[in-house]
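Whiteboard transcription, Tuesday session. T.W. wrote the structure tokens on the left side:
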């Protein structure tokens, strides 16, 4: 390893020393210069995942943050490690109030006394990246002021540099680690960390959540105070609530209904994912607060997920498979959703492994099983088969795991699928709505137009390659005749298909012409849809007739 490129050899030696002490020396002795290997005995009293969690806690804020990110990512590491990292203790020492005061005054360019009417010197929360203080603005608003830990940016950049060095050499020298892509994990972690260290991005996320929740009576998102926020300071409306994992405190209080609280939390997630396409990506119980009236409040908006139309569609299909108890369909959707390593992925073996694990879970029916357990097992199997799921789907899955886990803890008869059923059926119905189908056909038509526009250039390019000997073609005369016949048949079918698509698009475009008479559509639209059905039936008859011959 070329340690000359590392800026802080002392920190490197400290990290290596802790890794060796905790039993990870096997991965390091081959790749670390002897002069940088501290002496000391290896301790092996715990399971690997427990030692890994304890090691991260000893290595400090950067590594604790890495563990927190990995606890959200069962697609990157084995499930037993994900579970153990859920117990990660973010017990870092508080930094002095004077340092927080200096940071605030430097960032907001005013004395603390002029910025706030009151400011509690004791933080209400301390984490690896920041501390949170309760304060009062000059106008009387009570706020939570998040102050970035001094020197954390420099420390994290140094640690990430060392992480890269260790990951590259571990990946190179240990084949059994290549599956987990250590370098790829550090790259993702670096991107997430840089975003999270800029509190302005978190402020933007909070504003977007608040805007999306403006019509939701059961969800509260704190207000952002721009004038009191910067890259290293974030001032939000103070939310006084009970953390989700402390629901037992509300059990005997009449103004709270635990079933409604869990239901509201899950419906909030479904709305964020499937309607807004923008959801809270770090839903551990400390970031979800319960308020009077069974309301839910969210805090900490550093990690968010995005759901595009493709992910929404695939997730709706998963719901459809679960509701209909169709294991084959679920496996097919997972395979279509994931990125596969063609050399090392066996689809049939993946499906067999999924069925082997999930069939005992089913007991009665899939829709009565624990969805969190199914997701956890499938993601673990996908990791084993080198199938990488989209990051945002994994974050959504982790959110589902949290909600269902809390739900079952406090409401033992909570059934996630039954709670989601009305919502899922509404989404499925919407997806198959005639107007939406017409819009999708219209989009496909534009794609076909682009394809056919570029077709002459592609054909010319292909023939040039054939002439240059770059493509070898071996076809006899009968094959050419058959090919000509097939092309003629296919072109006719394509023409029919374009006519059908054009009629559907026309019907959708003229839906505002005249009063609605059936299904929300006027007579001209219904005529256009009817003609599309007639042409489609004619095409089907032609295909069936050809099949008989």
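and on the right, the sequence the group agreed on:
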């Amino acid at each position: 390893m070329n340690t000359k490129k590392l800026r802080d050899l002392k920190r490197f030696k400290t990290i290596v020393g802790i890794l060796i002490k905790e039993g990870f020396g096997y991965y390091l002795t081959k790749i670390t210069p002897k002069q940088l290997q501290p002496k000391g005995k290896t301790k092996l009293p715990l399971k690997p995942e427990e030692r890994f969690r304890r090691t991260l806690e000893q290595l400090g804020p950067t590594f604790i943050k890495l563990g927190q990110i990995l606890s959200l990512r069962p697609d990157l590491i084995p499930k037993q490690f994900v579970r153990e990292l859920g117990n990660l203790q973010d017990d870092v020492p508080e930094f002095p109030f004077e340092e927080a005061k200096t940071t605030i005054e430097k960032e907001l360019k005013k004395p603390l006394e002029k910025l706030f009417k009151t400011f509690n010197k004791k933080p209400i929360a301390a984490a690896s990246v920041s501390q949170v203080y309760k304060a009062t603005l000059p106008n009387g608003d009570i706020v939570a002021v998040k102050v970035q830990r001094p020197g954390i940016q420099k420390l994290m950049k140094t640690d990430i540099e060392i992480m890269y060095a260790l990951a590259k050499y571990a990946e190179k020298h240990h084949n059994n680690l290549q599956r987990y892509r250590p370098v790829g994990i550090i790259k993702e972690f670096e991107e997430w960390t840089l975003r999270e260290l800029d509190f302005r991005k978190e402020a933007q996320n909070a504003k977007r959540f608040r805007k999306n929740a403006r019509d939701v009576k059961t969800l509260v998102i704190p207000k952002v105070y721009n004038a009191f926020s910067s890259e290293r300071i974030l001032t939000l409306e103070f939310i006084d609530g009970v953390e989700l994992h402390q629901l037992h405190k509300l059990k005997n209080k009449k103004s709270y209904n635990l079933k409604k609280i869990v239901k509201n939390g899950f419906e909030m997630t479904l709305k964020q994912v499937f309607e807004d396409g923008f959801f809270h990506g770090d839903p551990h119980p400390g970031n979800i607060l319960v308020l009077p009236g069974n309301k839910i409040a969210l805090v900490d908006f550093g990690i968010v997920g995005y759901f595009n139309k493709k992910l929404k569609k695939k997730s709706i299909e998963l719901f459809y498979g679960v509701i209909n108890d169709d294991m084959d369909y679920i496996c097919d959707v997972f395979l279509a959703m994931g990125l596969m390593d063609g050399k090392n992925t066996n689809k049939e073996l993946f499906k067999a492994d999924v069925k082997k694990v999930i069939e005992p879970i089913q007991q009665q029916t899939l829709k009565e099983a624990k969805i969190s357990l199914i997701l956890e097992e499938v993601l673990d199997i996908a990791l084993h088969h080198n199938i990488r799921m989209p990051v945002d789907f994994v974050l959504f899955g982790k959110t589902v795991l949290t909600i269902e886990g809390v739900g079952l803890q406090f409401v033992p008869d909570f059934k996630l699928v039954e709670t989601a059923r009305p919502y899922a059926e509404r989404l499925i119905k919407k997806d198959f709505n005639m107007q939406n189908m017409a819009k999708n056909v219209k989009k496909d038509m534009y794609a076909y137009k682009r394809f056919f526009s570029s077709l002459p250039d592609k054909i010319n390019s292909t023939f040039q390659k054939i002439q240059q000997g770059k493509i070898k073609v071996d076809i006899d005369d009968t094959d050419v005749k058959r090919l000509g016949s097939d092309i003629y048949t296919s072109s006719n079918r394509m023409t029919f298909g374009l006519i059908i698509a054009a009629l559907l698009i026309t019907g959708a475009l003229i839906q505002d012409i005249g009063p609605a008479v059936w299904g929300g559509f006027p007579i001209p639209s219904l005529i256009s849809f009817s003609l599309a059905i007639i042409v489609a039936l004619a095409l089907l008859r032609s295909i069936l007739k050809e099949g008989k011959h």
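Someone added at the bottom: The radius of gyration is 29 Å.
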